[in-house]
Amino acid sequence: MPIHRPLLAALLGLALSACATIDRPASSAAASPIDAARLSEMTRVLASDQFEGRAPGTAGEERTIAYLIEQFRAAGMEPGGDNGGWTQDVPLIRTRIAPSASFTVAQKGRTVPLAFPRDIYVSTIRAVERAEIRNAPMVFVGYGVDARERGWDDFKGVDLKGKVAVFLVNDPDFEAEPGSAVEGKFGGKAMTYYGRWTYKFEEAARRGAIAALVVHETDGAGYGWNVVESPGGENYNIVQSEGALQPPLLQGWIQRDAAARLLAAAGHDWEAVKRRARTPAFAPIDLQARFSARADVALERIRSRNVIGKLTGRSRPDEVVMYAGHWDSFGMGPPDAQGRRIRPGAIDDAIGIAGMIEIARAFARGPRPERSLVFAAWTAEERGLLGAEHYAANPLYPHEKTVANLTLDVLQTAGPARDVVLIGKGQSEMEDLLAQAAVRQGRAVTPETRPERGLFYRADHFALAKRGVPPLLIMALAGGNDLVDGGREAGERWLEAYIANCYHQPCDEWRADWNLGGAVQDLDIVYRIGADLADSRRWPQWKAGSEFAAIRAESAAARSR
């Protein structure tokens, strides 16, 4: 179901015993441990070389699925997937742009190559074996936002059919001058969905663009070019139904300096254009340039799988509290400076999956809650939230009876913290439950310190949120924790080092010297929130200002019975 169109349209040597055991809330009685050593061991296994980086459609997936089913069963879960099994099929295409691909821009009598992936990084999510574009006009569309409800239209009726749309990253107010008319119109530093590259690609598709390029700037994107090019020209998509809207043939990123040169050749100053793009008066700019591309595409149709387990509720089994994370990582890539090719995804998100299994084990050892608990390990998150999106479009448990979704994606490994970081402030009552659980833990809630990264729109929970299910996302990328050992400064150092060096890279490896005290705290807190919900009749609501409130309201009658 589409969203409203304008918006979307440590073995270990760790003294963790005190925080590695948690008690079920009074309503559920018995104590249930979260075992830090087991958490570490499962993460170590999933991030080991035998899983080859856990890419969908590979031998690594087969080993991952088999291991997860074994762990789900050992934790006490029942099969929760298709036809009484453990999985849900997710039909995908996988594409890879050949390294020999060429990209050029003809402008003002000169034809200039764009080196791939140094100047330009693109991929395709169409089921094609060749991507060829000949002399397509290029149009700079500012932030590419169509938000009539905010009095904003960057397109001004421009025809993009068959053209290349070039977008600025993030929202129009991301770099707003204090006191300007646009300041705060799109959440200020907090990215809205309009600022996400996914929205921009979707908008390009709706308008018939043959290609879409987002100008990369590290601050606005929230990560460096090394992250942009980490998939190595590979991409995935869900197999599209006949008649579905086609995505752009090529989509991806262009370096800021390359984009500035294009504007300059067309007679425009980069900084002046950016300032104008932060006003409602902005109009698209014909770059007086023609883009050509020739790229062979390795196309493969694959069957990937979500892994789903459950614990059936004892009195209201049709009402579901869902825990989730993603099992996939980036597989094999070009060798890094140490010659490592496997991108193991230990923190992103093997530890989240291991944590989810530990939570399920804790529930299974105690009295069965009133409501059912579902535990989902999604595929292809790193390829566009595809496993979660496929589930959301083909739910095994109705969205209107899904109480909440609690997603674990990246847990910090730097030790216990005095706080837990909230992502998506102002969205739903799940933040109130987080605050209450934090008080019981003796911790504070800190709003995300990097809202410009748009994390609320960048994890698997978003596929469920679009269908009205209130989510809670625990993700260490949202801001450095106030660590017990070293404070906020130490938390920021851990986060910045991870993002700069290991995020989506071969060094995202399991380490025996991790301090998992903070990860256990966060698992404890989401366990408690889920336990409260599973033994109550409460249905968390979206807050009035959320764009998802109306969607949830449409199914209110199903929850009143």
Give structural notes:
With 561 residues, the protein is α/β, with parallel strands linked by helices. 27% of the residues lie in helices and 24% in strands. Helix 1 packs across helix 8 and helix 8 crosses helix 13. The protein starts with 20 loop residues before the first strand and ends with a helix.
Low-confidence stretches: 1-32
Radius of gyration: 23 Å
Percent strand equals 15-25%
| Biggest sheet overview | 15 strands, mixed
Form type: globular
Give me the secondary-structure category: alpha/beta
Topology readout:
Layout: E1 21-23, E2 31-33, H1 36-46, H2 59-74, E3 78-79, E4 87-97, E5 102-107, E6 110-113, E7 120-123, E8 130-140, E9 146-147, E10 152-153, E11 164-168, H3 197-206, E12 211-216, H4 218-221, H5 225-228, E13 234-238, E14 250-255, H6 256-265, H7 270-277, E15 285-311, E16 316-326, H8 346-365, E17 371-378, H9 386-393, E18 402-408, E19 419-422, H10 430-441, E20 444-447, H11 461-465, E21 471-474, H12 487-502, H13 517-534, H14 549-553, H15 556-560
Parallel strand pairs: 8-11, 11-12, 12-14, 16-17, 16-18, 18-21, 19-20
Antiparallel strand pairs: 1-2, 3-15, 4-13, 4-15, 5-6, 5-15, 7-14, 8-15, 9-10, 15-17
